[in-house]
Amino acid sequence: IGNSGTFDFKSMKPVKDGLFDIGKTGGAEGLRFSKISLPAKIPNPLAEPAITRLMGVTGAQFERILGGKEELDGKTGPDAIEAALKGIDVDKALEEAKGAVRSGSGSQRDAAIKKMGAKVVAACCLIDRSAGKAKVGVPLIALAEWKVSAWPADKLPPHLRNIPAVKPGSRGLV
After folding, report:
1. Beta strands of 10-97 (E only): which ranges?
2. CA 110 from chain center: how many Å?
3. How far is the C-alpha of 62 from the C-alpha of 58, rounded, in Å?
4. pLDDT per position as a tens digit, 86-119
C-alpha cells in the first residue's frame, strides 16, 4: 500500500497503490491481503485491554507511555511497551493467577480474575457463616447461611476452653 487513497470518485475505479488497489488487495471485495509498513512497531489496538492487564497499568497510563509522555522502566513509546511485554513470563503469570484464584483471599482472587480479563459480578460460597453480614464488594450468593458465634479468647464458654482453635474454611484442602 503506497497511499491512503480509496477510489477515484469520478471514475469509481480504485486508486493505484491505494487501500483498494486491485493488484494489492483485490479491490473492494478484498480478495488479497496487503500491509501498510509503519515507521515504528505499535500494539494492535484490539490487544490494548489484554496488554494493560498484563502490564498492570491503566488505559490512560498505557496511552501516556505509548505517546512518549510517561516513562516505563526508563523507556517511552512503543519500545517501552515491547520491553515490558518481553519481560513478562506469561506461563508463570498465568500459574500465579490460577493459584490466587484457587487459594487466595477474596481480594487476591478478584485481582487475579480481573488481570485475566474477567469482571467479578458476584461471589458465591456453600455456607455464609456471617448470616448475610459479610461485605465482599459484590453480591454474595450462598446455598445456606449460618450465624457462627465467636468469642474473644479470654471469654470462651467453659465447654469450649479445651478445644484447639482452628481457622474455618477450605483453603488448606486440595
Report:
1. 13-14
2. 11
3. 6
4. 988 878 877 887 777 777 677 777 777 777 777 7
